[in-house]
Amino acid sequence: MTIKSNFLSAAAFTGLLALASGLATGAYAEVPKNSLKLLSAQFEKRHVVQIELGDFHFKPGQVAPIHTHKAPALGYVAKGSIIYQVEGEKEQILREGDAFYEPVGPRILRFDNASATQEAIFTDINLEQKGEPFIVFPKPLTEKIDRRTLPTIAVNGKKIEKVDIFSNELAPKEQLSLKSRATMIGLVAQGIIELRIKGKKPQRIIAGGSYSLPDNAVSTIVNASSEVPAKVITFQLN
Description:
8-stranded antiparallel beta sheet, 4-stranded antiparallel beta sheet, mainly beta, single chain, Jelly Rolls, 15 strands
């Protein structure tokens, strides 16, 4: 797993969108020097019918039960820190700003709030084939998990075998004009943005919200604030 927490400039993000277009057609564009991935995950190609998103809020010291995934799960830590361990691998700490990948098959032994005093918040997306559940618990839960469902995205059997995750910070009122051939999912990690997709009504999305950009979408993301930055996490599906 590769975990980084560097932010991207607006210009870099535009370059990354060009890269996503290239990936969709099998051609790779040059990545700008100041654009760094948070994570890149490769898995067996699958016919994904929907992408289910969950926003989790863990209380101080909360421990996640051992679980498995039928579908690849990828996500982002928005607040706090997580103790993460896949069966057969070493424990690691995911910190605020880190991305993660939970593979199909092995048990997830730990996904626990690392702090005894502060809340942890993370969001994950699951690339589900027909009939696959969001998560599998081998034993009934003994403690409530605060999972806040985000809109599910239908992708109609799209073949996906790789996801690249990027972070981008927008200055006040900064905007990006986007056009990509690859489906993208976005999370607003900080601030408020306005999403403008050609032919559709603009959407105002606050921190904690999500959105999707379909194949061949022409759109603009605007930081809706004139005073504070906004941060967007982008999942590019290939």
